[in-house]
Amino acid sequence: MAKGKDVRVRVILECTSCIQNGVNKESPGISRYITQKNRHNRPSRLDLRKFCRYCHKHTIHGEIKK
C-alpha cells in the first residue's frame, strides 16, 4: 500500500459559545476537545455537542484548524 495521507486524522473541537461571547474574566478559557474523524466518510467540518466546563452546559463544538 502507498503511504499517503492517513484516512483517520486528529481534529480539535472548540466551543462556539465561548468564542461568540469572548473570553472575559468570568470565563477562564475556551473548552477544547481532541478527537479523530474519518476523512473519507466526513470530508466536511465536524460539529458535535459536547460539555463545556466554562459555560457549564452542553454546547456545539466545531472543528478548528491546527
Automatic annotation (TrEMBL):
Compartment(s) of residence: Plastid, Chloroplast
Keyword Plastid on entry: yes
One biological process term in Gene Ontology: translation
Xref: SUPFAM superfamilies: Zn-binding ribosomal proteins
Keywords, ordered alphabetically: Chloroplast, Plastid, Ribonucleoprotein, Ribosomal protein
Keyword Thylakoid: no
Molecular function in Gene Ontology: structural constituent of ribosome
Record-level GO cellular component terms: chloroplast; ribonucleoprotein complex; ribosome
A Pfam family per the record: Ribosomal_L33
Family the entry assigns: Belongs to the bacterial ribosomal protein bL33 family.
PANTHER family: 50S RIBOSOMAL PROTEIN L33, CHLOROPLASTIC, LARGE RIBOSOMAL SUBUNIT PROTEIN BL33C
Protein name as annotated: Large ribosomal subunit protein bL33c
Organism phylogeny: Eukaryota, Viridiplantae, Streptophyta, Embryophyta, Tracheophyta
